[in-house]
């Protein structure tokens, strides 16, 4: 109610009966009205104050929200522009609405190029590259293929940039026609994937295809083979290559393998497939109609190439190779059989003495099965120690007595019976068991010698593999220490092949053994190619003339002259001479005239088990010499 109306109302209420205004009454009404509205004025004032305070708080909140929004915007910008991936957003009209710095960097665009509103077509024209052929069409997201208003699709695009980079874009197409895309530089990932694929199919050392890739090549060749076409597969193995790694180091071995691969590649030519199957194994696949003539010529060419010395710095290495050859379709009509039969032929080539090639023959497989069975039995024999030593006397002609024994291994198989050394020693060397067998022989021979008189020595044969695949000096020291036998009573016999393997590595071992007082003998002297040259390379204590020189010395003047010359040579070099294979009294008499030092052979005694040696070492009752040979 307005103030004027309220006042006139109060005046009308204060008029008395005579029409005059009761001033006192009017005053009371005004005061009462004031008092009624006094509380309302206070409430209004309080409300106003509250509104002012809330307005102040609201302003503060608005300011805080504004600051927070600014902070979030800055954070969003930081995150957006520091993403390792490029990000772009295009609207339904295919105009750019949002992007980050990485997007421009990936595609070689400027900030002006990526201004809001730029079209995809404009950006594509300005990119320093072009879309690759590997882009894939869109696919529907979700489990159902039916289109809905809310569905979206994803497509992958690839861009080949002018600088060689590969950019991959994953584009999500939204229902309204807009899209969101992330972009990544996949160049290194692609190179890594290609490298992994390459390594999965190639040998990293030589760059040749590996076994997996080679099988694929053989499979493909069989699939494409014409009815009148033959496929020859050559399986090569470097003979005794492991000794190079053991004596010269793996790095030298790797260098040699690279040179081997290059020579084989040059010999095989681009028309033949070549692979490295393993450490020292290679394979060649040859197709044609003139087999086995072509593959025989190829094998000979490879043999000539690998027979030339290999060099690593000043070191010279000579290698030989064994090869197994299988020709399809006669030797197999699928990859597995052809590979297996070439491997079987290779095994026979190595069993025949290495350095040769063998063509697969049907009977080889049966022989290989027997060989595998023998190898399994030999491994079991090493574990069970099914061996024993027999000893053949060494007879001193000047003292007319036995001066020592040569230890000769025997294998007593529970089913096969007695297995001849020539049947299992080459196999043991090939599969590496000779190290364990040789270690056992050393221990057993020293233990047996400990039971003999102190002036009786024991001779033990040592394989070339024991020099390269074990710590021979340690094995010898442990055997002597365990048996408490003097080193001077042990004689180690080595053949020329030991020195041929790697003279520079073997000589320090021989010198170390000799310095300990162990005697070193060259066995089978005269049967090798360079025996005389090796005599000058090391001060042998003894040379043992092979029995092949003895059989004709009585009736053949030339044979007698050779024996005479070798005995004189040994005497001139200060080396004792032992003649093996003495079987008759006439041979003995002639060697006595030649003043030979020692003899060994059935005329003295065949090899005997250790239990029979007591009779040979016991002095005769008449006081004569110990076990004189028959006259």
Automatic annotation (TrEMBL):
Pfam families: EAL (PF00563), GGDEF (PF00990), PAS_7 (PF12860). Residues 371-621 form the EAL domain. Residues 130-153 are annotated as: Disordered. Residues 229-362 form the GGDEF domain. InterPro entries: Biofilm_reg_signaling, EAL_dom, EAL_sf, GGDEF_dom, Nucleotide_cyclase, PAS, PAS-like_dom_sf, Rev_trsase/Diguanyl_cyclase. SUPFAM superfamilies: EAL domain-like, Nucleotide cyclase, PYP-like sensor domain (PAS domain). Signal peptide: none annotated. It comes from the Bacteria. Residues 72-123 form the PAS domain. NCBIfam families: GGDEF. PANTHER family: BIOFILM ARCHITECTURE MAINTENANCE PROTEIN MBAA, DIGUANYLATE CYCLASE DGCP. This is EAL domain-containing protein. It comes from Rhizobium phaseoli.
């Amino acid at each position: 109610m307005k103030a004027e109306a309220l006042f006139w109302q109060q005046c009308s209420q204060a008029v008395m009966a005579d029409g005059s205004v009761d001033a006192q009454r009017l005053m009371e009404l005004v005061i009462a009205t004031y008092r009624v509205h006094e509380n309302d004025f206070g409430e209004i004032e309080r409300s106003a104050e509250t509104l002012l305070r809330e307005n102040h708080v609201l302003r503060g909140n608005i300011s805080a929200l504004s600051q927070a929004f600014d902070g979030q915007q800055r954070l969003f910008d930081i995150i957006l522009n520091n993403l390792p991936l490029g990000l772009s957003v295009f609207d339904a009209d295919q105009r750019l609405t949002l992007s980050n710095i990485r997007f421009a960097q990936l595609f070689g665009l400027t900030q002006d190029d990526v201004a809001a509103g730029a079209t995809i077509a404009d950006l594509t024209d300005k990119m320093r590259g072009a879309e690759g052929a590997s882009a894939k069409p869109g696919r529907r997201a979700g489990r159902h293929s039916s289109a809905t208003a809310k569905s979206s699709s994803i497509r992958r695009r690839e861009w080949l940039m002018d600088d060689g980079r590969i950019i991959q874009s994953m584009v999500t197409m939204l229902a309204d026609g807009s899209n969101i895309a992330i972009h990544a530089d996949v160049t290194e990932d692609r190179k890594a994937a290609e490298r992994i694929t390459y390594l999965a199919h190639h040998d990293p050392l030589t760059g040749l295809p590996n076994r997996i890739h080679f099988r694929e090549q053989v499979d493909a060749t069989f699939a494409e083979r014409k009815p009148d076409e033959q496929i020859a597969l050559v399986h090569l193995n470097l003979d005794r290559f492991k000794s190079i790694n053991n004596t010269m180091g793996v790095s030298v071995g790797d260098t040699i393998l690279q040179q081997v691969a290059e020579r084989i590649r040059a010999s095989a030519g681009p028309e033949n497939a070549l692979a490295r199957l393993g450490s020292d194994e290679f394979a060649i696949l040859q197709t044609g109609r003139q087999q086995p003539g072509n593959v025989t010529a190829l094998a000979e060419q490879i043999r000539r190439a690998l027979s030339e010395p290999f060099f690593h710095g000043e070191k010279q290495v000579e290698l030989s190779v064994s090869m197994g050859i299988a020709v399809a379709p006669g030797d197999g009509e699928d990859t597995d059989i052809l590979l297996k039969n070439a491997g079987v032929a290779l095994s026979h080539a190595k069993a025949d003495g290495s350095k040769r090639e063998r063509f697969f023959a049907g009977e080889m497989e049966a022989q290989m099965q027997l060989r595998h069975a023998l190898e399994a039995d030999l491994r079991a024999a090493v574990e069970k120690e099914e061996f024993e030593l027999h000893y053949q006397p060494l007879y001193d002609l000047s003292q007319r007595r036995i001066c020592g024994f040569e230890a000769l291994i025997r294998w007593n198989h529970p089913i096969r019976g007695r297995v001849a050394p020539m049947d299992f020693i080459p196999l043991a060397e090939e599969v590496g068991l000779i190290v364990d067998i040789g270690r056992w022989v050393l221990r057993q021979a020293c233990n047996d010698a400990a039971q003999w008189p102190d002036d009786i020595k024991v001779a033990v044969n040592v394989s070339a593999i024991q020099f390269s695949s074990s710590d021979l000096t340690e094995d010898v020291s442990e055997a002597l220490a365990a048996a408490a036998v003097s080193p001077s009573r042990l004689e180690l016999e080595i053949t020329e092949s030991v020195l041929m393997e790697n003279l520079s590595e073997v000589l320090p071992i021989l010198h170390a053994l000799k310095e300990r007082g162990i005697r070193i003998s060259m066995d089978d002297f005269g049967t090798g190619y360079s025996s005389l040259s090796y005599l000058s390379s090391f001060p042998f204590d003894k040379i043992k003339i092979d029995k092949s020189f003895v059989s004709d010395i009585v009736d053949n003047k030339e044979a007698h002259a050779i024996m005479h010359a070798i005995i004189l040579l040994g005497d001139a070099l200060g080396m004792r001479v032992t003649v093996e294979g003495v079987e008759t009294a006439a041979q003995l008499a002639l060697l006595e005239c030649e003043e030979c030092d020692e003899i060994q052979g059935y005329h003295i005694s065949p090899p005997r088990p250790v239990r029979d040696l007591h009779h040979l070492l016991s002095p005769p009752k008449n006081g004569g010499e110990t076990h004189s040979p028959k006259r």
